[in-house]
Amino acid sequence: MKTLIVVKPGWKRYPGLLFGIGVFAHGNGMAIILHHTATASKAFWEQFFPDNAKMADSERTTEYLISASSIFIIIEGDNAVELVKQRVVKTRKIYGKKDADIKNVLHSSDSEESAQKEIGLVIEFMSQDRL
Q: pLDDT digits over 82-117, tens only?
C-alpha cells in the first residue's frame, strides 16, 4: 500500500520534520519510494485541492502554495495510509503547541482512494515536467 505526504511551503521553519518522517517510515517497516522537491504550479494545486476554490480565502491559499517549494514523499508499506495519517496528526499536535501553521504545512492522504488519486496526480505532473 502506498500513501503520500506533502510538506508544503513553510516546512523550513520546522527543523527535524523531514528527518522525523524518514525515521518514522523506516522504523515502521515502510519505505520512501519517491522524494521530490518542487515549486508546484497553480494548475497542479487547483487539481490537487479542488475544494479550495470554494473557500473564502482560496486566492491567498493558492498564492501560499505556489510561493515556494513543497516536498512530495511517497511511502510504501503495510497499512501505510493509516499509519502515516496518525503520525501526521501527532506531528501537528506536537508542533501545534508552538505554532498553529503546522496544519498548513503537512498533508497526508486520508484514504487508499485519495492516496491513489494524489499519487497519480503527482506522477502525472512530474512526468510532464509541470511540477
A: 999 999 988 877 766 555 555 578 899 999 999 999
Q: 35 to each of 71, 93, 99, how far by Cα in Å?
A: 7, 24, 25
Asked if 74 and 32 count as a contact pair (C-beta separation under 8 A), the reply is yes
The answer for residues whose C-beta is within 8 angstroms of residue 36's C-beta and 6 or more apart is 71, 72, 122, 126, 131
Farthest-apart Cα atoms in the chain, separation = 41
Beta carbons within 10 angstroms of residue 29's beta carbon: 11
Distance CA 9, CA 64 (A): 7
pTM over 0.70: yes
